[in-house]
Automatic annotation (TrEMBL):
PANTHER family recorded: GLYCOSYLTRANSFERASE, POLY-BETA-1,6-N-ACETYL-D-GLUCOSAMINE SYNTHASE
Superkingdom per UniProt: Bacteria
Region feature Disordered, mapped onto this chain: 153-172
GO MF terms, alphabetically ordered: transferase activity
Residues in Glycosyltransferase 2-like domain copies: 12-111
Identification of the protein by name: Glycosyl transferase family 2
Keywords, alphabetical: Transferase
């Protein structure tokens, strides 16, 4: 079997903006394993584009026009539309070797029945891997002919901009679950995590005052996400769930810091929501 024949029939789409610190690892992990690797870049001012191109990725510029479709749906519509299957990776994510092997098993079975696959993350926080605790699961592998990102009524919301919000794309068909993980290894300083989540909490708080958009988003959350939306005392619950119930304490200090950071994120949402309640 030649190298070309052994490539997975999948295009990897990597949405980026200023990911020079991480992009080499991401592109290097997928070049040669997939049919195409495309970095979709939003006007980076660092060396993201040059690094990606030097490693063999195709670079496509993207500028958001303030409307729908947002960036991921734009990728589904425009990035190698001749290849039905698309794998989304953030600019600081790499598929583990186990995941690439599992994908080979998936595509060895024809036809592939699921319309999409949910993939768990192996998350890094403050430079350390988190093997326990709260596990993020993303619907990252999509058959673009059967999956789309809905147009949620949140264009007036702060915090997200060109990105789709924290919800899953809608699949017209069954959704599979893969066992192997995407490794989310962000090499940027931990302050960037807090900067991002400060923006994300703006969006979450905005939803609390816009019930129509909130209801749209709720229908696109995972079952776990829908449950967490309804419970009281979210900061305390997130800490207890992540650190104790999911045994985040086994990850040492990093597990404690991550559980506390998630709790702080939920607290931010609550404070911002209460701030905007009319007196």
């Amino acid at each position: 079997m030649t190298e070309l024949e052994s490539r997975l029939p999948v295009v990897v789409a990597i949405p980026t903006k200023n990911e020079a610190e991480n992009i080499a690892a991401t592109v290097g992990s997928v070049i040669g394993h997939f049919e195409a690797v495309v970095v979709v870049d939003s006007d980076s001012t660092d060396d993201t584009r040059a690094i990606a191109e030097s490693l063999g990725a195709q670079v496509v510029p993207y500028t958001w026009d303030g409307k729908y479709p947002k960036k991921k749906q734009w990728c589904l519509d425009n990035v190698h539309p001749d290849i039905p299957w698309l794998l989304f990776l953030d600019g600081d994510e790499v598929p583990t070797p186990e995941l690439i092997d599992e994908l080979r098993e998936v595509f060895a079975r024809q036809p592939v029945l699921p319309a999409a696959f949910d993939i768990p993350l192996l998350y890094w926080f403050a430079g350390r891997p988190l093997r326990r605790g709260y596990t993020v699961v993303k619907r990252s592998l999509l058959d673009r002919t059967r999956v789309s990102y809905p147009e949620v009524d949140d264009l007036g919301a702060p915090g997200m901009g060109e990105q789709e919000g924290h919800y899953q794309p809608r699949a017209d068909g069954p959704v599979g679950q893969l066992k192997a993980r995407i490794e989310h290894r962000d090499l940027d300083p931990v302050r960037t995590w807090f900067e991002r989540h400060n923006r994300y909490s703006d969006w979450e708080a905005w939803l609390e005052h816009h019930p129509g958009a909130k209801e749209q988003v709720r229908g696109l959350k995972t079952r776990q996400g829908r449950i967490f939306q309804k419970v009281p005392f979210k900061p305390l619950l997130f800490f207890g769930y992540t650190y104790l119930a999911r045994r985040g304490f086994l990850d040492g200090r990093a597990g404690f810091d991550y559980a506390l950071a998630l709790s702080f994120y939920r607290w931010q949402i609550g404070v911002k929501t209460r701030e905007n309640v009319p007196s």
